Amino acid sequence: MKTLWTSRLTSFLFVLPYLAAFALFLLFPILYGFVISLQDFELLSAAHPFVGLRNYMTIFTPGTYENSIFFRGLWTTLQFVLYSVPLLIITGLGIAMLVNALPAKLRGLFRTFYFLPYALSASVMAVIWLMMFDTNAGFINSLLQKLGLTGIPWLTATPWAWIALVLTTLWWTIGFNMIIFVNALNEVPEDYYEAASMDGANAWKRFVSITLPSIRPVMLFVMITSTIASFNIYAQPFLLTRGGPGDTTRVLLINVLDQAFVRKDIGSASAMAILMALLIMLVSIVQFRLTNRKEKV
């Protein structure tokens, strides 16, 4: 009995640092943010009266400023999710398969090469791609002009601004998905491929019949994490396009932070953030349920 109690105590002590960090840096901010969303919490005011669900009702009231910026920002964010998530999954898997097809001596080098951008900070990423996409002196437009072609307004016109943001996101974050997929592909038994080859299955049939079913749980994980990350996009449009041209790339997080620190209405901004978190949870649950349903079928 004493040994069992000691074992449980030891296990608890191992997870205690994580639980403490989780409570301090995630659970408490979420709960405190919800409390703030129920208050008239202006940044420069000492009084923060309780207003209940008024901030939420204002967001869903047509014609209000909060309603306008929330739903316009949400639509812009959803556009980015639809543009980026399929590419993040397909490109990540494609690069992982290409890396796995390389000779063993080169695999580590190319994994590092593709993963390096993921380690860069947002500011460094923005500087690099501003130099690439700048309309007047950017590397891409300079190259196009040398080829006798007209430069493209990458960051100042649509749909080029969206293309630039998606390409930047792919370059910056694809290394994470690639590493996850590489590990998943390495777990697929080689015997399956050998047996399929002996039965006359070509590369495409082996991919559809063996690779995809074997890595389906990892595919679900990558899909959900990519969706969450794309919903939380902020650095790319803020640093590259400033939400332009006009407000076509002004995503929801830009509006939330503007509401909080420019208009100084922390209560309303917290309500928007809570609604955004609930929407991300809902989308993740739907993705999980749909994928599980396909597996059962």
UniProtKB/TrEMBL annotation:
InterPro entries on file: ABC_transporter_permease (IPR051393), MetI-like (IPR000515), MetI-like_sf (IPR035906)
Residue ranges annotated for the ABC transmembrane type-1 domain, each copy included: 74-287
Keywords assigned by UniProt, alphabetized: Cell membrane, Membrane, Sugar transport, Transmembrane, Transmembrane helix, Transport
Record-linked CDD domains: TM_PBP2
Membrane topology: Multi-pass membrane protein
Subcellular location: Cell membrane
Main location: membrane
UniProt keyword Transferase, yes or no: no
Keyword Phosphoprotein: no
Family: Belongs to the binding-protein-dependent transport system permease family.
Name assigned to this protein: Multiple sugar transport system permease protein
Organism: Paenibacillus silagei
